[in-house]
Specification:
393 residues, alpha+beta, Creatine Amidinohydrolase, 2 domains, six-stranded mixed sheet
Length: 393
């Protein structure tokens, strides 16, 4: 646990304390930030309070009294609910503004983990509970130099795999000697997975290869029994993500689109240019803010991209946020580029990584153009190849 850094962040945010609380592992964020084992038996409630100044305090059940012994601070114990509430009241008594894994109106649900009953108890004690969202970003999303380097390692590998994947589709759809070859979306998923394994990458589910109307489903998952065949004249979307296969490494996550054996239609080209313009507008909004040392929140970057698509008349077809935080998990706990699904007012912090991926999804096809950015003090930029035209496969 980074006690001094947490206390400095509390003082900077004008918060009196950060109260961590768990029961049955309902708050995985607490375990990661505090450095607690996530596999330990937790059958009783525990509380850990980090003040902006002074010594932390613990409150644990007597039958699990050693649960927080790895952390610094004094310890109180309880058995009955009356003892618990008395101990909790004493723990928080000196503090007014207390951060917890809570978000007003559940606006940022990724950190909204404290139950309403616990909030009732603390508010009944006269405490003002504030969101820990920006604190969580600081301690969950900020990357080390090694993690940033691992992102670029994954980027170099995946950019090459994606480019070769498009070429492989062409080889299978138009075989050199004219033999009858059947290739499906799922076949290409298998091919991409094998290429990623050879590159010592690891990933969650996926990747995704979508043809024609399937590309209009932004979370389509090809399966062997229902995958579409890929033919000349088709529209193809590939969404691919992975990280290097070692602990703590950072993901790289991209989406490109293309057409097989033909030139794009007028509509496909128009939608691509719109999506590309939206992507570039978000990139500029973030990079300009960092260059000028101006704070920028996730919702502001989303607005920059969404405005381009709305002005082009496709607003109703852009059905998801513009981007998500990226770290050792694909969808990390930093600021998302979002003013649609949530109003994400978390700041985009230096030394964080995130996707920029606007999309337009029509009946016959969907186009998403996804790149990743890394922001560092004074600069924010794309980390890999940037698609400038539809791929001709």
């Amino acid at each position: 646990m980074q006690l001094e850094a947490i206390q400095a962040a509390l003082r900077a945010g004008e918060m009196d304390a950060w109260l961590f609380y768990d029961h049955h592992h309902r708050d995985p964020i607490a375990y990661r930030i505090l450095g607690l084992p996530e596999s330990a038996l937790v059958s009783r409630r525990w509380y850990y309070l980090v003040p902006a100044e002074g010594e932390p305090r613990k409150l644990v059940h007597r039958i699990e009294s050693g649960r927080l012994d790895s952390l610094p601070g004094s310890k109180g114990v309880y058995s009955s609910w009356q003892e618990l509430e008395t101990g909790l009241a004493a723990m928080v008594d000196p503090y007014k503004h207390i951060a917890m894994q809570y978000s007003p109106r559940n606006a940022i649900m990724y950190v909204s983990l404290v139950d309403a009953g616990t909030m009732d108890v603390l508010r009944g004690l006269g405490k003002t509970i504030v969101t820990s969202a920006d604190l969580v970003s600081r301690f969950e999303a900020v990357l080390s130099e090694e993690q940033i380097a691992s992102h670029y390692d994954a980027q170099a590998a995946l950019d090459d795999i994606l480019a070769e994947g498009f070429r492989e589709i062409g080889r299978r759809v138009r075989p050199m000697f004219g033999e009858d070859v059947r290739v499906t979306e799922y076949d290409m998923v298998q091919w991409l997975q094998e290429a990623m394994r050879r590159a010592d990458l690891t990933w969650e589910n996926g990747p995704n290869v979508s043809v024609n109307e399937n590309s209009a489903d932004s979370h389509y998952e090809p399966a062997a029994e229902r995958a579409k065949e890929i033919h000349n004249g088709d529209f193809v979307l590939i969404d691919i993500w992975a990280r290097k296969n070692h602990p703590g490494s950072c993901y790289y996550d991209i989406t490109w689109t293309g057409v097989v054996g033909r030139e794009p239609s007028e509509l496909e080209q128009k939608v691509f240019e719109t999506v590309k313009g939206a992507r570039d507008a978000a990139v500029y909004a973030v990079s300009d803010a960092f260059e000028k040392n101006r704070p920028i929140a996730g919702w502001q970057a989303d607005d920059a991209a969404r405005g381009v698509i709305v002005n082009a008349g496709y607003g109703e077809f852009f059905t998801h946020r513009t981007g998500h935080n990226i770290g050792n998990i694909l969808h990390g706990n930093g600021a998302n580029l979002d003013n649609l699904e949530t109003h994400d007012d978390r700041l985009i912090l230096p030394n964080t990584c995130f996707s920029v991926e606007p999309g337009v999804y029509l009946d016959a096809f969907g186009i998403r153009s996804e790149l990743n950015m890394i922001a560092v003090p004074g600069r924010a930029s794309a980390t890999g190849r940037v698609q400038q035209e539809l791929v001709r496969i």
